[in-house]
Amino acid sequence: MKRAKVGIIGASGYGGGELMRLLKPHPNVELVGFSSRKHQGKPLSESWPQLPYPDLFESQQAVIEKSDILFLAIPNGLAMELAPSLLQAGKRVSDLSADFRLPPEVYQQWYKTPHKSPELYRQAVYGLPEFFRAEIAGANLVANPGCYVTASTLALAPLVSLGLVENIIVNAASGVSGAGREAEGTSFAEINENFKAYKVAGSHRHIPEIELNLSRIEAQGRQAKTHGKSGEVKITFTPHLAPMSRGILVTAYATPRRVLEGAELLGVYQDFYQNEPFVRVSEALPETKGTTGSNLCWISPKLDARTGQTIVFSAIDNLGKGMASQAVQNLNLMLGLAETTGLCTGGLWP
Length: 350
Prior knowledge:
Blueprint: E1 4-9, H1 14-23, E2 29-35, H2 44-47, H3 60-66, E3 69-72, H4 79-88, E4 92-95, H5 104-111, E5 125-126, H6 129-136, E6 141-143, H7 147-161, E7 165-174, H8 188-191, E8 196-197, H9 207-220, E9 235-241, E10 248-256, H10 262-272, E11 279-281, E12 297-304, E13 309-316, H11 324-334
Parallel strand pairs: 1-2, 1-3, 3-4, 4-6, 5-6, 7-9, 11-12
Antiparallel strand pairs: 7-10, 8-9, 10-13, 12-13
Helix pairs in contact: 1-11, 7-9
């Protein structure tokens, strides 16, 4: 198979760096270029000393001209400006920002800025392969999911699709890299030996994305469509910042409409995800280090028999299944490859 010519716009951020780590050795990809406004003309090693390649950061235009498929690893609000010209030029686009995940009016409400290319939302395919793989394969514009969104959706989808739960509460903790490479309030002195909630009481931007996913799955079932019918799932979501570099751990609580006990509950999840190479269901509780560096989502459902509540735990690497490696999984679908090509199904330990 001819190797796909792939470029990365915004390659000096955490998502861009992880994409380069995965795409350089990918057997079906030729990484033809990567850009960074901050590091243009400088060697890759200046930003990523762990990547032993002699390449230089190039201009955005130079990368665009050489590429057939472009990853946009740039801040929210920029992809909506760049994507129209790329698509008109016949490029295929994989966006890691939030710009095409939500209907334009919902995006404007939560991101506090008008959408500059609202007409493209109807062309965008949502990039969660476990539910949208049929659409992703033929997509020219893929909207890759948020990190909290991926972990929360995969944790709750089996129960929601079967109509088994209501009153959903999600508590989640993320490593510091989820805030980005230049985020404020993430210095060692502030993060080390500290644990805090943030964006509480329904204010985190991933809430509408989680609700939209679960509403689609509630209405459409397992094989969902990005722009298909949708239900009305609402959640309470509280994120926390954990003193670790990478990883997300979700603890989701829901009131069961029908109580499923141990083996039966576990069986629902095992059946639901039995053909998914990047979802591990187990009785053992997930740990973030079990997913570090991988495209794995590790899930464990439990019943609190005393209160009757269903509790689901899930762990991912926020830079992996929550960002870059999931984008590569989508790329594999776009290229007609096995989804596992170039990706790891196990985490690093210790």
